[in-house]
Amino acid sequence: MKIVKIKENSLGQEIGLSAGDQLIKINGERVLDHLDYEFRIADENVILDFKINGELSQIIVEKDYDDDLGVEFEEMKIRKCGNDCVFCFVDQNPENMRDGIYFRDGDYRMSYLYGHYITMTNMSKKELKRIVDQKLSPLYISVHATDVNLRKKLLLYKWGKDDFLLKKIKYLIDNGIELHGQIVLIPNMNDGNYLIQTASDIYKFFPHFKTLSIVPVGLTRHREGLPELSYVNKNYAKKIFDIYPELNDSFPGEKSPFILLSDEWYILAEKPFPSKEYYGEYDLIENGVGQFRDFIDRFNDEFPEFPEKVKKPTKVSIVTSTLVYDIFVKLVKPVLDKIKNLEVNFYKIENNFFGDSVTVAGLLTGKDIISQLEGVDLGDSVWTTYRILNEDQTLTLDDMTVEQISEKLNTTFKISKNDSIKEIIDYIQYET
Asked: How far apart are alpha carbons 153 and 156 in whole angstroms?
């Protein structure tokens, strides 16, 4: 692992390390990535093997158990997914986007670090052992189906044979690794009896397999050359709620359900969101399970503290997706309309980039926002969710910056860092 930066007054600086030096081993064990480093550096006495200026060097360090070297390494090379899933969103992107958009992450390290779902089809015995040895828990597993033949059809993994999903799960569970699972549900493919079988097979590992969430398949208009799949619509969503009570009864959880439905199901079927108790510790909130309940509860807690009047006449706009527009207009707008000197308008953005079947806010693009709002009197600022930006919060999916959108809209374009209406009110009161 190559060092790219040494922190001031760090242990690494003290022992004479420099940017460009390579860490090879700790206590005789190879260091392949950041996780190896964090796992092996946690000791009071460590033997470090470096390559410094092309020469091998060994350094013995005595330190506190929790101390690290205070160095930054080059970014990990992420392992690519080995599948060709019929519903993979990456394959449904248009051409001529940045390279990162087309990368299919299948790396268990990203699952541990960031909650990314992985299939485990290409996971070796060595990697399974490493997960156990380094206690990389919890992990997030894309299950989709447990029937072997259906898995081959859904995932199209290249070797065309059993990937031993359940054996891998058992090995991890038996060795203390907690798991969360996800099913991308496709009408007339992995639903019906297949869904019951999948839930039954996974539930055998409960409670160490903590949750199994169900999300509707997402299909864009860019599916040329891909298998024909059915969309999830309102009627289908309602049918899921017809069977959901039976699923809950058959596979009960403890403090919260074992099988959880993502927020989209409730919106599509026009069902009320469950209480916060349904979501437990909100373990899956970044995967679309509980985002709206969390937002609603925070909003209900916050709005009694909103001012009766803002300090000067202010007009702001809030950009939403088609999925959540009605919720915002019904829940939020009546409260904000009571604040004197404040005018708030909500704008629903159609997703022309991916197609109108894509309705979530996190997949809105800069160009769609601009094309549908350019020339509109948007007021002093325009707000939307941080979910439209990439992980380092710099670019939209179509490579636009916040500054570029602001320029095109001729007003300040703001990103809500925590999807909070209070954040907008505080900005109006104290920063304008």
From this structure: 5
